[in-house]
From TrEMBL, chains A, B:
GO terms for biological process: response to amino acid. PANTHER family: LEUCINE-RESPONSIVE REGULATORY PROTEIN, TRANSCRIPTIONAL REGULATOR AZLB. It comes from Streptomyces aurantiacus. Signal peptide: none annotated. Residues 29-89 form the HTH asnC-type domain. It comes from the Bacteria. This is Transcriptional regulator. Keywords: DNA-binding, Transcription, Transcription regulation. GO terms for cellular component: cytosol. GO terms for molecular function: sequence-specific DNA binding. PROSITE patterns: HTH_ASNC_1, HTH_ASNC_2. Residues 11-23 have a biased composition (Basic and acidic residues).
DNA sequence: TTTACATTCTGCGGATTTCGCAGCTATGGG
DNA sequence: CCCATAGCTGCGAAATCCGCAGAATGTAAA
């Protein structure tokens, strides 16, 4: 339950006077930290010394920066897998429309373990949620018995995945 | 350009007689490998010895299994970041409808660096693509000048992200 | 300018981890 | 039965990680 990770972190008051920050509360990253992230996006286990050589820093400095990036929640180093290989054969994106405040709906979705991804959007859906399930029955159950019954939910539309073509984790590498 | 990673790998003929395989060509994972993945989902840099202790294997055996999982493409160990923090302020999911064969369209999307995620779906969209951009201009440019002009593309519908609520990488941890 | 303080970097040992390899065991053909 | 393969263990050498002390650097107040 630890590697759950949300883009807009709530600005923690006690570190809000920390470093340079942009107006949304996110710490500003310099070119060196960006370089470190880039290295770790290629290989999450790359040794600190090798990273240091690439970005022009000592091993210890890289280590400190990486630790800080992890502590701040800017970056995570994790294993990512192919869901199909790990036994989840049905995935779907679900578009949701709801009445009133969307936060409770989004929070309820977030609490479901089958839901990998929740985002509030502008457009003809209020919320998009990605669901990873073991089989059709499981998927049907989640959509009909758990999502469509949430208070406020007016309608849903499902897009069952037929073939995943691309999935990268290369932000910042451009 | 290396940590791009596609769920349904094309069955490479030369390793198709490898190990146990399910009918979609994916190697079957036993409980021990699942346990290793789970450990690395919590912390991608966890030492092999610690993982071994958790799953009941020697350090060397864990190392061999991890290497194999990486080689097979079942798993990747990478840094994942919050796009907002790294300077990408506009994200959107784009639903696409197209005529004829969808593969060329999906391939063209896959080739774009702004596109993080491409999936072919059943439902009222043929393809869903997630786009990560620096600003509104950039986003507009990608959608209008690069996606909507692709041969075969009939229509698109965009869902601009307002707030990302959840994003996990915990497949297999349930 | 000077002083005080906080941040970040470097260098360096000691502890830990990784790495490569040889040997052992179990399984499945031929 | 014998051979080949896959997977595990143990172990020593090399590399890496880790904590810490001291040196730069930057900032803010006096």
């Amino acid at each position: 339950m630890q590697s759950e990770f949300v883009a807009s972190r709530s600005a923690d008051p006690k570190d809000s006077r920390d470093s340079r920050e942009s107006r949304n509360g996110s710490p500003q990253l310099d070119a060196v930290s960006l370089g470190i992230i880039e290295q770790l996006q290629e290989d999450g286990r790359r040794p600190y010394a090798a990273i240091g050589k690439a970005v022009g820093l000592s091993e210890a400095a890289v280590r400190q920066r990486v630790q800080k990036l992890l502590d701040q929640g800017v970056m995570q180093i994790v294993a990512v897998t192919d869901p199909l290989t790990v036994g989840f054969r049905r995935q779907a994106m679900v578009g949701i429309n709801a009445d009133g405040d969307l936060e409770p709906v989004a929070d309820a979705l977030t609490a479901m373990q089958e839901v990998e991804y929740v985002v509030m959007t502008a457009g003809s859906f209020d919320i998009l949620a990605e669901i990873v399930c073991e089989d059709d029955d499981h998927l049907l159950d989640v959509i009909n018995k758990r999502i469509r019954v949430l208070p406020g939910v007016r309608s849903t539309e499902s897009f069952v995945y037929l073939k995943l073509k691309k999935q990268t984790y290369m932000w910042g590498t451009r």
